[in-house]
Amino acid sequence: MTLLVISPDYASHLLPLATLATAWQRSGDRVVVATGPATAGLVEGFGFEHYELPLGRGSNPGVIRAEQQPVGEDEALRGFFAATYRGMVETLRFQAEARRNDLLWEPVDRAQAVLQVVEHVKPDHIIVDHLAFSARLALTAGGVPHVDVVLGHPSALPVGDEVYGYPTAWPAAFRPDAGALAELNRLCRTVRDEFTAEWNAALHTLAPTAAPSKDAFTEHGDLVLYNYPAALHDPARAELPVPHAFLGSAVRTETVPADVRSWLEADDQPFAYVSFGSFLSTRADVLSTVISALRRTDLRVALATGSAQGLPPVPDTWLVRSYLPQTALLGQAAMAVTHAGNNSVTEALTAGVPMLALPFSTDQFAGAAAIETHGVGVALDPNAATADDVAAAVRRTLDSAPAAQAIGEQLRRTPGSELAFTLATNHPSGNP
């Protein structure tokens, strides 16, 4: 059999999809990954075939920097980073406005390119990132069966009266103005309508007899797989697509460099793993606050600095690198300090590690709210939290370890890759 994986050119998207694809690889199947050039090395590292397929203007091979983006995309990224300093609503407003231009990049051209890939590869199964809208547009227009993987918080696929881009929940530490929230909701609905019109126009060009969408953000594949633990899902969100399943997580196996292995083996003192992911590590001010707070504790620290500049000095006993093997370190960490991105949340929970969440954007607010609601950690507002606040939250986070460990035991019983393979290969949608 042949599996085709379609992913945007972003490491944070590709890594969980590639991890799911390892189940096909173990079964002896051919795996082809269609994505952009920036992540080609990651594809080859997994031992998969790479088919070049850019799906957007930007890219991220692991740590994103504005100066490495194309003209226009660099300014958009700087604008996003600036918005995070102004708070939750302002960041979500910026992202809603940007959505007018960046989710369906050259939709007809990219859709035709996707269909050419399908024709060339002739896959038996297709799994596609839910946020690869132009790819899903192509598969919808071509009537090509596919598995739709929601890599972010489940609210990335709206249900009921939800509107894409408006958070379904946020932690108690955030107290947004009601009027600002109402304005954000109106903006998100306007952008939804504009996006749907753009989707329908491209769909009509590709497949003139296809039925138009009422809300393109709610469109999905034949089978929807959520890269998210069912234990954290809000039961009020009951109108999920049929069929669907929760994978729990897609935790990859990482090679641990010798220096990291030596650090892990040098001391059995509990440690905190700190990372704001490939984007938000630029918030060196918040990382500095976290560093100040953790210096007051008895924890060692493994700190992934990403693109952060000008951080304060740290103790010699800490492990500090721009990039660290996250899943390997989480497997031994006592706690994690995170931006609440979905990869970090699911990987930490699979390891049974409680989290101190400092969310900045998109579905991170809903992810942090779930951490708080289900007692697997603590959530703070990164723009308001002081070092004293963070130090106090560290203690409460460590107290959340039993709840996180219980969920971790459940997730480790059935790896997400094995579940995805079973569901996708037995799904009645059949051969594309």
Rg from alpha-carbon coordinates:
21 Å
The biggest sheet amounts to: 7 strands, parallel
Shape: globular
CATH-derived architecture of the largest domain: 3-Layer(aba) Sandwich
- CATH class label of the largest domain: Alpha Beta
Number of DSSP strand runs: 13
Unreliable runs = 64-71
Report the CATH superfamily of the largest domain: Glycogen Phosphorylase B
Order of helix and strand elements from N to C terminus: EHEHEHHHEHEHEEHEHHEEHEHEHEHHH
Helical fraction: 40-55%
Protein name: MGT family glycosyltransferase
Pfam families: UDPGT
GO biological process, one term: antibiotic biosynthetic process
Keywords: Transferase
Fold and architecture overview:
- With 432 residues, the protein is of the alpha/beta class.
- The protein folds into two domains: 2-251 and 415-425, Glycogen Phosphorylase B (Rossmann fold); 258-412, Rossmann fold (3-Layer(aba) Sandwich).
- Helix content is 44%, strand content 12%.
- It contains 16 helices and 13 strands.
- It has helices at 11-26, 40-45, 73-86, 88-102, 107-121, 133-141, 178-206, 258-266, 277-280, 284-294, 326-330, 342-350, 364-373, 387-399, 401-413, 416-425, and strands at 2-6, 30-35, 49-52, 125-129, 147-150, 223-226, 244-246, 271-275, 300-304, 319-321, 335-338, 355-357, 377-379.
- The chain has a seven-stranded parallel beta sheet, with helices on both faces.
- α6 links the parallel β4 and β5 (147-150).
- α1 crosses α16 and α6 (133-141) packs across α7.
- The longest helix is centred in the middle third of the chain and has 29 residues, at 178-206.
- The chain starts with a strand and ends in a 7-residue tail after the last helix.
- Residues 64-71 have low confidence and may be disordered.
